[in-house]
Amino acid sequence: MSLRQSLKSGKFVITAEIGPPKGVDVNDLLNNAELLRGRVDAVNVTDQQSSIMRLGSLASCALLKERGLEPIVQMTCRDRNRIALQSDLLSAQALGMENILCLTGDYVTLGDHPQAKPVFDLDSVSLLQAARQLEQGHDLAGKELKGSPHFFLGASVTPGAEPIEPQLIKMEKKVKAGAQFFQTQAIFEPRKFEQFMQQAENFNVPVLVGIIVLKSANMARFMNKNIGGVYVPETTIEELDKAQDKTKKGIEIAVRLISEMKSMCQGIHIMAIGLEAKVPALIDAAGL
Amino acid sequence: MIISELKPWSEILSYLKDEGKIFLVGCKGCAEACHTGGEAEVLEMKRRLEQEGKIITGFSIIDLLCDKALVKMRLTPHQIEVKAADSLLIMSCGIGVQAVSALINKVTHPACNTINMGGTQGEWRGDERCQQCGDCILDLTGGICPLSVCPKGLLNGPCGGSKNGRCEVEPEVRECGWHLIYERLKKLGRLDKMKAIPPLKDYSKMQPPKQLRNTTLWSLER
What we know:
- The complex is a heterodimer.
- Chain A is of the alpha/beta class.
- Chain A is built from eleven helices and eight strands.
- In chain A, strands 1-2-3-4-5-6-7-8 form an eight-stranded parallel β-barrel, surrounded by six helices.
- In chain A, α4 links the parallel β3 and β4.
- In chain A, α4 (82-94) crosses α5 (124-135), α8 packs antiparallel against α9 (234-242) and α9 (234-242) packs antiparallel against α10 (246-261).
- The longest helix of chain A is centred in the last third of the chain and has 16 residues, at 246-261.
- The model of chain A has no long low-confidence stretch (mean pLDDT 96).
- In chain B, the strands form two sheets. In chain B, strands 3-2-4-5 form a four-stranded parallel β-sheet, sandwiched between helices. A two-stranded antiparallel ribbon of chain B has the order 1-6.
- By secondary structure, chain B is α/β, with parallel strands linked by helices.
- Chain B has helices at residues 9-15, 30-33, 39-51, 68-75, 79-84, 94-103, 146-149, 177-187, 192-195, 216-221; strands at residues 3-6, 21-27, 55-62, 87-90, 107-110, 112-115.
- The mean pLDDT of chain B is 94.
- Chain B has a single domain (3-209), classed as Diphthamide synthesis DPH1/DPH2 domain 3 (Rossmann fold, 3-Layer(aba) Sandwich).
- Helix content of chain B is 33%, strand content 14%.
- The interface between A and B is medium-sized, with 34 and 27 residues.
């Protein structure tokens, strides 16, 4: 079933992200994807996450599609101008893919090629607009297309941001620009997510809450210091600190978050970041 | 020297659509030389806006608008007129618009586009920056230029990298530009402006226009 159909059917949707290799050995990528077969509704492949040069999302997703999985292509505006982005949107469709997650992208100096020229010709909102315009048979220059694509467009939002209002304003713009579903940045505070959803519900677009599986207290502290809009409460960090088996505790925390937040939204988006092999066990433990 | 040109009349009127009382600000520096913000142009703007039914609460032509200390000094005698206005229309380069916006707790509108001179500056002494993009959007952003304050030059709001009002790029020294814009618009009661999606930026306007390269000014500034 396509992601579009899954979300339309009203079922609780599960997506999970995997990261492509730095190089052309795709064994781990494909093995991780196999673990998710039949367990999730769609698989995201990141677009050079944290500005670290890797195999592309588009090629990786094409490999998943070939194997009968439902991929979500992540597309950032960091490295490509409007010519390249529109071309990649057409390429995705030509390879049989319709799910595109439209993102701005991290800044280049955060990654492993800090010398690179940053692009950001479009942003997440105008990338959505570009995809919509292609669907209507024209490119951003107004030129007519020979055969127009048909996408299922996603976007992201950070429900833990302080203040939340700028995020909600941008979310509304993304919906206006064409976003049909949202996968959120990770959130570890169910009450805060509930408050966010009370506002976000008004946009009438499905929201999949972002779940990161914590590996250690240090990972949580690193995210608190460095990742925008992500905050792991001190009590959760203490819990991890005290635990003997950190992985087991990380999964336990994720399961708890899922059970507390699942009634508030339309699905979950799991970012395992290295713990991909544990995702099926997490889904089992969450009773999904 | 910074080159500016008046925005199309329809665009200026669209900014002032819901506002009846306007205070005009001109600049005796580059804008006077460009005939976009000197005394003659400010008086002409006054006449045209009055013809459109607007009330001009007052005007001031400042030497120079890019110097915030001067802007503050010269606007002080006009306090009552500024206070009576719904908004201020600034007839200068982007730096002038930003300098006035930083000092006056009122909605400001740019009357001009700033034309690219390949990086030359005016008499500027403040911390405002203008990228000379040729299509000023300061009207939508509370008089804070997103192309200058956001490393990504985003036009539609903050990215996910904004944390506690700081930017993901060098958070110890950079504020999130869109956080600043949000705070300013909120203070002005104009968050509706942040909800508007601006047209796609035409980056070809960020190159100095061909005809400018043939001028004496270009040779002098080179």
